[in-house]
Amino acid sequence: MSSAMQFYVSVILIYLGIDLIACWGLNLQYGVAGVVNLAFIAFQAVGAYTAAILSMGPAQPQGYQTYFIGASLPFPVPIICAVLVGGVLSGLVGLVALRRLRSDLQAIVLLVFSLVATDIATNQVGFLNGSAGLSQIPLPLESLLNLTPLDYQWFYVGFTAVACLLAFWVVRRLTGSPLGRAMRSVRDNEYAAAALGRNVFAMRMRALIVGGMIAAFSGALLVPIVGAWAPSSWLYGETLVLFAALLLGGRGNNLGVALGAVLVPGLFLEGTSFIHYTARPGFIDAVQWIVIGLLMLLVLWFRPQGLLPERPRRVDLAPSLLPPSRWPWLARNRLAERSELAGRPE
Amino acid sequence: MRSIEARRVYWPAIIGVLALGLGACSSSASSSSAQNQSQDKSPLNVAIVEPFSGPDAAFGPITSLGCFPAVALIQQAGGVLGHKTINCQTIDTRGDPADAVPAVRQMLTTTSDLVGIIGPSSDESAATVPIMEQADIPLFTNSGAREFDQTTNPYFHRLFAADDEAGYAMAAWGHAMGYTKAAAIFGNDVGSQGNVPTLLKAFKSLGGTIVSNETVTLDESSYQSEVSRMLASHPQVIFEEMDPQTAATFLSELQQLNGSLIPVIGADTTLQPTWFQAVGPAIGKSALSKYVTAEVQFTPPSGGAAYNAYKPAMLAVAKTVKGISDPASFVTSPAVETIYDQVTVLALAMIAAQSTDPKVFDPYIDKLLRPSAGAVKVGTFAAGKTALEQHKTIQYVGVQGPYDLNTYNNLPPDFQVDSWTSSGALHLVGSITPAQINAAAHG
Amino acid sequence: MQLFLESIGFGIVTASVLAIAGVGFTIQVGIANMFNLTYGTVMIIAAFVAYGCNAAGVSIWVCLPVAAVTGGVLTALLHRGVFRPFLRRGTSPFAMVIVTVATGFVLQYTLQAIWGSNYYTYRFSRGTTHHLGPLLLTTAQLWIIALAVLLLLAMHLLLSQTKLGKAMRATAADPDLARACGIQTDRIAAVAWTLTGALCGLGGVALVMSTATFDFTTGASFMIVVVAAAVLGGVGRPSGAMVGALIVGLGSEIVAAVLSPDYKDVVAFGLLIVTLLVRPQGLLAGRGAATAGQVEVLGS
Known about the structure:
Strand content of chain C: under 5%
Order of helices and strands of chain C: HHHHEEEHHHHEHHH
Radius of gyration of chain B: 23 Å
Shape of chain C: globular
Largest sheet of chain C: 2 strands, antiparallel
Oligomer: heterotrimer
Distance between the termini of chain B: 79 Å
Number of helices of chain C: 11
Order of helices and strands of chain B: HEHEHEHEEHEHHEHEHEHHEHHHEHEEEH
Largest sheet of chain B: 7 strands, mixed
Low-confidence stretches of chain B: 1-38
Mean pLDDT of chain B: 86
CATH topology of the domain at 163-299 and 410-442 in chain B: Rossmann fold
Number of helices of chain B: 16
């Protein structure tokens, strides 16, 4: 492979990994806990900005970008701080947005947060350099490793892969745990869950915070490879692309969501860049949004559970607890669902 | 159940493989032709790396309007070193850095015989210029961003004025016109905001006062509050740079609230045909021509051999470019002329270096642009090619030139001020000399 | 001080446009119990059709009915073809938001694919600027305010005095009970959608008349402000939308004039969020259990 091809393939793999992490985070919030977070991309941006300003050093007075704070912290610290800041801001947003509202109003409230964040970032120039955004963001561990640019790219691919595994482990553990079951119960039937003693607000808050931390993590990983970060990179439409990935792949199912991430932001949005339509280049972009819209409509109509639906979880009870029945397998299933709703106390 | 799910997964995968296969086929087709060394050598490719979608979707078509006529004339004159076909490949960056990076990487992978890049714009330059410099391909950016004011990379070329120089020019002109109280109204986008810091500093140092400084959010339904705030401070003149739609709304509301316009000094967006098309109907073309002036880098008057060769080629191309209304009106646009010159000088540099390898011909780009003793001044590709074949030294002046680059490969601060006529043509009003810019910058 | 008073005038104009759009939007929420976020796109499509009519030489005021018809027909088609099938399936409220947003994308980007991202301007005379006390308003703006007042009055009379209006309110309040009383809720809903679609079209033209130029993205950003106005007054209540429009319109213009124009939209957003925090049922919601047009905002 020529070096240009290697650069391209490695960038695609890195972006894919970051999309996977982002989709898993959104899946935790929406797929598992039912929080309709239309502000997701803003949390990725929070992580990106935090990691950037904590690795770029303070803004130079005669320099061409202005931003607040700024420090040159060594390798994992900017990412860790990004994750923490993402979690804190998710919590703050959750305090406002996670009131008992209809899901569509809640979605609108969260969308509004995304729009407000974009407004503030663009208009307060001293905050994060306004619409020009931050640039010349250093690559982590660059001076320590001292690799050629191409070797560094492949190193970063491996680094992103490890990050993906970490994120997958976290979401897998969470969705499979009693907490995950409790979140799903809140998602499926909020009133029943509340009647059984679940703290609906706390469940959703946890999902929002952990999902927000994962979103910030993905942003912190993305920003050094792009090298620059501006409000145009995180408009509210990006969240809808991730939602399309979730809906197509199968919300609630981590592997389904991964498939959605490969298909929608990966194959569909990136793959079509190979089509050179010189007669009207902007046409492709418009067509992509049309297809995303149609995709969401078709998926919601024909297969709302997605390509890989959420697996129904079974809890096997001891046979002695089962009532005698002519169709034991039927009774066991019903019992399993009931016991899943109740969940184990956590 | 699981087997059914697994089978259903296959069809998207099949489509994906087909899509990748198509992409691979198209790139392998062009690379196989590169192997073919028969009478017609493989096509050379110039990449246009600009937004073709998103809020700055006009940048891409405007750049195409400069690139396509240039390659048409180059091909007419016999091509470059046996390569009879030159193509302008369009790459959509979508106007944001995160999408631009993979687009540029993909371009570098799949474009064979890539000899030059036109772009990027200020939306994505921060992220993409390092990538392109690293790839050792000459790039001609139209980003005015300050960070490129003092670059040393040999592949970086900028034949557009830097944003902060434009800010000095606006301040210098306002001072030259005798204004002492000015309002600064700039859109919150990257390109407009780049002018602001130097404008504010320079106008103050020249003795003026900025009585109102507003950053306007683009494309809102009403700016009446911004207009009244500005009017309450009683400015004599408005320094502005906004996109056409915003300017139309703002200036028409100014006209309503104030009874008439007040003098406006803009930057280069103000002199784009799209600006005239949007603002003209909103405030009336006669008001526009009376009150609005704008600075732009020095533009030689239309006419002359270079322009006469460029104009028919550009008008022929204008019929085919989609995405902006009335492309033909851009024939006198300094931006389009500069882009045309960039592509032409790129081709001439290859002939001067007798090589299509960027590493070999890149230094010749600056050599052909800078004046040198005994050089023949040429304005078209054909003339330049003929002169080079006669082993003469040439200086490419082109349609917008001369381009007398300084040590940092930036243009000298030589500006002029234009206004619009009611029929939508540009009209020279005055000029801003380097001495005035210097006074503004250091006064 | 003068700035403050002038901004009241601007606020009234903004409120007029918001009111025309907001009343239609809020009735849709009441009738179908869904937030139709395609509303902004339909506004701009109607505005675009009116532009075509205007470019053919017709005065923009005469093109208003054209826009109303476009909005009504398009909304009715969307309702029959897209929204109703999904609603009948029991799609969750949030999924309906996704459906409407996706439909909006398809419509907006289809237009953009065909006509490109150009800007369009109406050709009409704004007339002279009148000084009404401290307020500065052009003739065209006065006409827009008059149009808004007229439309709102007509809607109010329709809903309170006519049989159709009462049937609409009954359907919005409790569809099952309305059906039990013999009201053909399907037909009433179809009529309601068409009427509100007409309001949507008129709102689009009014918006563009105050913007001076528009492109296909103009509707999307206005949408959230419309939602804010509707929620503030209480979703499903047309009178609430009027009050909400007034508050949001005046509030954002006054804050923009007196404090900072950067945060005009943020005022609208802030009002939306504060309303949902403090009084989610909206300002005009009665304390009683069942008030006509009341839509549940709480709960899952």
